[in-house]
Design goal:
Blueprint lengths: L2 H7 L40 H14 L3 E5 L2 H9 L7 E5 L4 H11 L5 E5 L7 H4 L4 E7 L11 H9 L4 E5 L4 H4 L9 E5 L13 E5 L2 H14 L5 H11 L2 H20 L4 E5 L9 H7 L6 E6 L5 H7 L4 E2 L9 E3 L11 H7 L5 E5 L5 H15 L2
Parallel strand pairs: 2-3, 2-4, 4-5, 5-6, 10-11
Antiparallel strand pairs: 1-7, 6-7, 8-9, 9-12, 11-12
Helix pairs in contact: 2-9, 3-4, 12-14
Length: 381
């Protein structure tokens, strides 16, 4: 099946036992055993649940992987992947990586002896020399959060694989509808399914997809051993959300592209970050490796505009954490998504106090422009 059909019929398509068109929600903690060493395919809900299994199979098929594991959050998914590495391991990580990823690397795994180095993935000329013996993986976000910088996945994979290193790609912003990192050479794909996969701001979840069976079995072991699993009701909500992923992403991209162009010409805006604009340095690469530029636009206000007044003045757009919902969401990265990153590191990344991240929803784009225009007027000093 092609992607648009897989979104609806992939994974486990309905319930063969009853004919239900949706996968049932199996709200059970344990399963009856037929006898000693005899089960019906299920034992205990942490180890496996039919609804969660259906969500995992669906996301694995969409990404073109051999298996997927589902977690109670995107951060739980990232933690499971980082748990693949041992003390003394080192990772090369995208410079402007999500603040939560930076925090777990810096404050949880670094004290355990798993270290990292930030690297500007828009210039791969020095990447090979960074891949020393202790480096085990290259971890990328593309486009990155929140500056939307684009990384050449295929080129990173070629460089990393030449030195037997894993490539881990966070595909949250793109989803498998727009971009498939495994096909481009990545070994592991991570999703915060809370965002576009679920798409309705009603559940928190994470997924890891791999194209290697051995790696998949190791992640399944980590998932079971550590227990940060996705509950059955949230698995159901995620499957339900994925059914409309294609039509939602088409509208997200359309609205974001139009808003980015409008913001680029607005007197309140100093700079726009969006790889769907021809003026963006990642435009050509984004067109080559993805079907669209996604639904997130970041922009920097000019100094005479007060961001605090702007956030209080928006009416249709929601000021809050997260992204990827059907409703438009606005965030202040310096104090929200990247607050855990020390100021000097944050500013070196380019995340200034004037930077705003806008997740374009699927509302009428003219209403979104009017809401922003009103907020800009009130924010002007």
């Amino acid at each position: 099946m092609r992607t648009d059909s897989l979104l609806i019929h992939g994974g486990v398509d309905g319930d063969k036992q009853t004919g239900a068109v949706n996968v049932p929600i199996y709200l059970t903690s344990t399963f009856r055993q037929a006898g000693l060493g005899e089960d019906f395919g299920w034992e205990y809900a942490r180890t496996g649940n039919p609804t969660r299994c259906a969500a995992e199979k669906l996301v694995a098929e969409l990404e073109g992987g051999v298996s997927a594991t589902a977690y109670a959050s995107g951060m739980a998914a990232i933690t499971a992947v980082l748990s693949l590495f041992k003390q003394g391991s080192r990772l090369i990580v995208s410079r402007d990586v999500y603040g939560g990823t930076f925090r777990v690397l810096d404050q949880i795994f670094k004290p355990f002896g798993i270290t990292y180095e930030s690297y500007d993935m828009t210039d791969l000329s020095g990447l090979a020399e960074k891949l020393t013996e202790e480096v085990k993986a290259v971890y990328i976000e593309t486009p990155s959060n929140p500056l939307l910088s684009v990384t050449d996945i295929q080129a990173v994979a070629e460089i990393a694989h030449a030195k037997q290193k894993l490539v881990i790609a966070d595909n949250t912003f793109m989803t498998p509808y727009l971009q498939k990192p495994l096909e481009l050479g990545a070994d592991v794909v991570i999703h915060s399914g809370t965002k576009y996969l679920s798409g309705h701001s009603d559940t928190v979840c994470g997924f890891v997809v791999v194209k290697n069976e051995k790696l998949g079995k190791r992640l399944a072991f980590i998932q079971n051993a550590t227990g940060g699993v996705l509950p059955p009701f949230d698995s159901f909500l995620t499957i339900r959300g994925i059914k409309t992923l294609g039509v939602r992403m088409d509208r997200h991209v359309k609205n974001a592209t139009e808003l980015a162009a409008w913001l680029a010409g607005h007197p309140a805006v100093k700079k726009v970050y969006y790889p769907g604009l021809e003026s963006d340095p990642g435009y050509a690469l984004q067109r080559r490796q993805a079907r669209g530029a996604g639904g997130v636009v970041s922009f920097e206000l000019r100094r005479k505009y007060d961001a605090r007044k702007m956030f209080k003045s928006i009416r249709l757009i929601t000021f809050g954490e997260s992204l990827g919902g059907v409703e438009s969401l606005m965030c202040h990265p310096a104090t929200m998504s990247h607050a855990s990153v020390p100021r000097e590191i944050r500013e070196a990344m380019g995340i200034t106090d004037g930077l705003i991240r806008l997740s374009a929803g699927i509302e009428d784009v003219e209403d979104l422009k009017e809401d922003l225009e009103r907020a800009f007027r009130k924010a002007k000093g």
